[in-house]
């Protein structure tokens, strides 16, 4: 299901605007959640890049440091068409650090923050902070601010963003071809498996947005703990659960499909099975790939959401999101692009 047909939680977005007019209008700062421990073989390196791909920067850093690419670690991919900061680790056993200020790419700045005992692993970050600027705006300011207030209060449907599905959304079709026997390399296989699971998740969430229960409970609900991959249920809904939902301590969840049955029961389980049944080749392929049944929160609440109108009529929006969430998923409730 492509982004343009996914239903909105709050109705038609009130603005038409351009996002990413330049990379400077889309700033992402990684929230790693810890500092270098001061000892070890790994250099803790702050990387600021503009208009560059994370994988490419990692390879160039390895080449500059004279180490294999496997010696460079980072927690997550950052947008190419943006200004981003994140942490790399570079393993330099028994070697002095190079002069990072002489790195030969003008749009990448490297700063050593000290030594660390371990390589950063993929996914090992708390989240990201975004500063986004919308330009060439059409629409009503008051309606936009009302929509932003609704997003701050209720969050948004936690759709996987279009980045997950590749250019033109083709990753899902490529995943189906892989399940039918087409050979792909290991890195591509992981990307396609993720796209296939995300496709079913977005389909379930879309149905719940249409029904108006994307941020509340259904019979047979599986609940996810905020900021955690842990989940529990189904169990009878009560005042205690209602209070936890209201303060965003727990969230209703949807399936990251895999082998076996969804743990959701009653109406929630019936919905998830019916959506998955639309793509039997994906269901069979994920089971054959031995993917486990996992869960993802259906709602996403930006933290520290704020906004201001700039002198030139542009709108600046700031917020933080947990790891695995998409800024474009937040912004699609506010705006569409021409």
Entry keywords:
10-stranded mixed beta sheet; single chain; 16 strands; Pseudouridine synthase; globular; alpha+beta; 338 residues; 8 helices
What is the rounded distance between the termini?
21 Å
How does CATH name the architecture of the domain at 157-300?
Answer: 2-Layer Sandwich
Task: Determine the fraction of residues in helical runs and give it as a percent range.
Answer: 25-40%
In CATH, the topology of the domain at 157-300 is named Pseudouridine synthase
Classification by helices and strands: alpha+beta
Low-pLDDT stretches = none
Gross morphology: globular
Reading off the top of the CATH hierarchy, the class of the domain at 157-300 is best stated as Alpha Beta
Compute the CA-based radius of gyration: 21 Å
Quickly count the helices.
8
Order of helices and strands: EEEHEEEEHEHHEEHEHHEEEEHE
The CATH superfamily of the domain at 157-300 appears as: TruD, insertion domain
Number of E-type strands: 16
| Strand-residue proportion | 25-35%
Task: Outline the secondary-structure elements.
Elements: E1 15-19, E2 26-31, E3 42-50, H1 54-65, E4 72-74, E5 83-91, E6 108-116, E7 127-139, H2 141-154, E8 156-157, H3 171-179, H4 186-211, E9 223-225, E10 231-232, H5 239-246, E11 250-256, H6 266-276, H7 280-288, E12 294-297, E13 299-300, E14 303-309, E15 315-322, H8 327-331, E16 335-336
Parallel strand pairs: 1-16, 2-5
Antiparallel strand pairs: 1-7, 2-7, 3-5, 3-6, 4-5, 7-15, 8-13, 9-10, 9-11, 11-12, 14-15
Helix pairs in contact: 3-4, 3-7, 4-6
Domain TRUD: 155-300
Family: Belongs to the pseudouridine synthase TruD family.
Protein name: tRNA pseudouridine synthase D
